[in-house]
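Hey, resending since the last one bounced:
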Amino acid sequence: MTKPTNPPLPPSGDELKATPEEIAEARAAESYWTPERIAEAVPVESGKAADGAGDGSAVAGGDASPGKTLRAPSAFDKKGVATAGVFLLYPGDQNQGFYTGCKAGQPCEVQLAEPNDLWSEYADIITAGDCTGSNAYDLMVKWVDGEVTIYKDIDQKAKLPTSLDQHPANEIKVAPAKSIWKNAKGIATGKYGGNKWSDDLVVRWIDGEVTKCTNVDGNGFHAETQLMPKNSLWADSADLITGGDFDGDTSDANPNYDLFVKWADGKLTVYQDVGTQGLNSGSTVLAANSTWTHARVVAAGEFGANDWEDDLFVRWSDGEVSMYGNTQADALGREYRLVPPPAGFAAPRTRSDDPCARVCGPELYRRSTR
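The structure tokens again:
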């Protein structure tokens, strides 16, 4: 498969192939992270409301105010500049939020890749772990053609390729194009019984099979074991997976991560201690619901003040970004709103029992049910 090396031209008129509904959803889904919005993000329960929102229902930055423009660009902004494919790194504050030094005009974001179509069109699954044993996180990318690449030791100084002819020194190919990995539908890195490094993978395949690989490194994938044979439940209903320590029993001597699963109907499940227990039993974190069907990205990590990877980062279909700090194996943690949905936007109501018919997130759900 040939991956084009030149950025696409801005579409116009008849060149647009997406439907109006798809365009509307894309624009609503890709919120614009301005430094102001990052700096002003506060916990939902803090009661710090925007001006004029005395009930505390909207955090600072959640609604437009004079002199502040909140926009949600799609793949091309209003000047025709491609925005899809840009890769940014945001430092955290170890308190379920963005680094507190972010100020207006002084963004904390670091651009690792300029806008390009390589990442927007061909990067299929992205996950992070320490596969090279350097005590720094690496980026693992599964491309649509089945190639799997590791980019070692990602930090603020790292640069990622934006075209086929770019191969940075930290690039390691662990699976070639047209490999079996073309059929991988979900990858969750973690510590599932290998060593103290976060270099193990749980993989969901297109036919519903779930496997585990331990001690993945620059030489490839090792010690694959089957956690679940092929089945229709995991093939059709398992939507998003991520690995974390939601029961608090993982240590260097006991690498025993849990697997968090978001199902198509919004149900949330944690399978504890995958390394020793497999997927034999799971605990329900949240029953099936309409709001969580709109979660588009989930990633567990150590974003808070404790020593466990039990904080859950979520991006919603409307562009809202949330953090659920100190999530347990049977309950979501406290909700922090990092990026609000677009100002003045409300989820369409096509059924009286479903205020989130097209795009949604926790705040739009609250707005629509008041």
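The CA atoms of residues 76 and 82 lie 5 Å apart.

Sorry for the duplicate.
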